[in-house]
Amino acid sequence: MYAQLVETGAKRLKTLEEMSPEEREFQLKVDAETKIEAKNWMPEGYRKTLVRQISQHAHSEVVGMLPEGNWVTRAPSLKRKLQLMAKIQDEAGHGLYLYSAMETLGADRDEEIDKLHAGTVKYSSIFNYPTLSWADMGTVGWLVDGAAIVNQVVLQRTSYGPYSRAMIRICKEESFHQRQGYQILLDMMREGTEEQKEMVQDSINRFWWPSLMMFGPSDDQSPNSQQSMAWKIKRKSNDELRQMFIDQTVPQLEFLGCTAPDPDLKWNEERGHYDFGEIDWQEFYDVLKGNGPCNKERIETRKNAIDGGAWVREAAKVYAEKKQQKQQNAA
Ligand code: FAQ
């Protein structure tokens, strides 16, 4: 029933009556679950919010390759190495679909990537934590991809067509990622040595809370949620998704024979959900400010990758230009 945040001190959304005819038509279309496509009229705020969210999402997929890339040469078997490489390549693909979806909104890929390298835009906090053991490859797949799926399954119904269609393909691949991660942990817990089992528990201890932070600040602290929900860019709130993730993950945790580093985690019969402890939001905001354990290293690695690949792009461009010239000469 609402479209845009009214520019007043008190943050509230415009009512249908307060909207311009174009805004009203747009909002009614969104309310009727009609997808918005690239060439349709849209409020500038809707376009900007999508560019922000989709570019952040794309950057996350690309930076997200790094913690796992760290283990490709040390995977314990050929099978594991192949699975890990395939997963990392999938993440690169997700980045590409998402950058393409973002470009349909008129944003420029190179400019957005420059902003990432300048540290002026965000990517998911989770990728600023190090991957210290092979068990982390299991935990990243199980918890990090698991959290990503919970968030992304609902984004398949996001109101912007190109984003929603990209999410359908991405979700199919993410569910394979989650299972391969869980399988790594199951194997270590079932067939591993005591030391390997401890490695799994240590990994869960390190990744549990950062995975819960992936869903963003709690609803009352999330500046973008109200508007994004009204525009159906977001279909469920940060807290709703976090709770869904916890509810589906705890039984898997118990099946592994592991525990979470949260003494307050327990089933609440009345609510029909798990209760859980307070998230350390100070840590979350510190990571967002660039002070996580790996922020600087991640951006440095991405910059080096772009700089190191400059000659390939240059060569491809010269080749394409020469080929075009040849075709024109022959015509
Ligand atoms: N990290 O008002 P809200 C993956 C920022 S993909 C960093 O609640 P919003 C696959 C937020 O941008 C993981 N920043 O914001 C994979 C905003 O800042 P801004 C990425 C965060 O947008 C697996 C401010 O805080 N997934 O893992 C985070 O309505 C394994 C206030 O927050 C997506 O991007 C965070 N965790 O809701 C790859 C999904 N949370 O821009 C490799 C799409 C919040 O105003 C290996 N994105 N912020 O300055 C979304 O669904 C939303 O953008 C949220 C945040 C839910 C992340």
Automatic annotation (TrEMBL):
Signal peptide: none annotated. It comes from the Bacteria. NCBIfam families: PA_CoA_Oxy1. This is Phenylacetate-CoA oxygenase subunit PaaA. It comes from Marinobacter zhanjiangensis.
